[in-house]
């Protein structure tokens, strides 16, 4: 079994910053892709950013405001969010594509961390 635990969400004023963290633990042999997604009320879940090895992909709405990074030794992915806007308000989910020591590769989700940006 694999667990993803997110932290770092909260309430911030527009223009502020937050740093999200997501640590994976459990039966892990390797982790391929890691990423962040978000879901606002009444909307579908959408990709924010992913990191796979040295390849990084950002959603268009990020516009240079967010930076994704990972620490492979800690099985942790981060999302530094700057210049936050009210429209960034959402539940942010971590995702990791994990290969266990035994079994098949599977994409796991965290429980989500709330980000609220006030105007």
Write the layout of secondary structure elements.
Elements: E1 2-7, E2 10-13, E3 18-26, E4 30-39, E5 46-52, E6 55-58, E7 66-71, E8 76-81, E9 90-99, E10 106-109, E11 113-118
Parallel strand pairs: 2-11
Antiparallel strand pairs: 1-3, 3-8, 4-5, 4-9, 5-6, 7-8, 9-10, 9-11
Offer a concise description of the structure:
This protein has 119 residues and is an all-beta fold. It contains no helices and eleven strands.
Keywords:
119 residues; mainly beta; 7-stranded mixed beta sheet; 4-stranded antiparallel beta sheet; 0% helix
Would you write up a description of this structure?
It contains no helices and eleven strands. The chain has strands spanning 2-7, 10-13, 18-26, 30-39, 46-52, 55-58, 66-71, 76-81, 90-99, 106-109, 113-118. Strand 7 (66-71) and strand 8 (76-81) form a beta hairpin.
| Overall average pLDDT | 96
Q: What would you report as the Rg, rounded to the nearest angstrom?
A: 14 Å
Quaternary assembly: single chain
Helix content: under 10%
Profile the largest sheet.
7 strands, mixed
User: What are the secondary-structure elements, in order, as H or E?
Assistant: EEEEEEEEEEE
- Low-confidence residue ranges: none
Q: Give the overall silhouette.
A: elongated
Could you say which structural class the secondary elements and strand pairing correspond to? mainly beta
Strand content: over 45%
* Cα-to-Cα separation, first versus last residue: 40 Å
SS field, number of helical segments: 0
Number of strands: 11
């Amino acid at each position: 079994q694999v667990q993803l635990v997110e932290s770092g969400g909260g309430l911030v004023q527009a223009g502020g910053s937050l740093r999200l963290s997501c640590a994976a633990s459990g039966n892990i042999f390797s982790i391929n892709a890691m990423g962040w997604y978000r879901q606002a009320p009444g909307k579908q879940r959408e990709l924010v950013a992913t990191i796979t090895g040295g390849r990084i992909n950002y959603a268009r709405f990020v516009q240079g405001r967010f930076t994704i990074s990972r620490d492979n030794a800690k099985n942790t992915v981060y999302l530094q969010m700057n210049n936050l806007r009210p429209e960034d308000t959402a539940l942010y989910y971590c995702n990791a594509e994990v290969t266990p020591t035994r079994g098949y590769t599977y994409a796991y989700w965290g429980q989500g961390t709330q980000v609220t940006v006030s105007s």
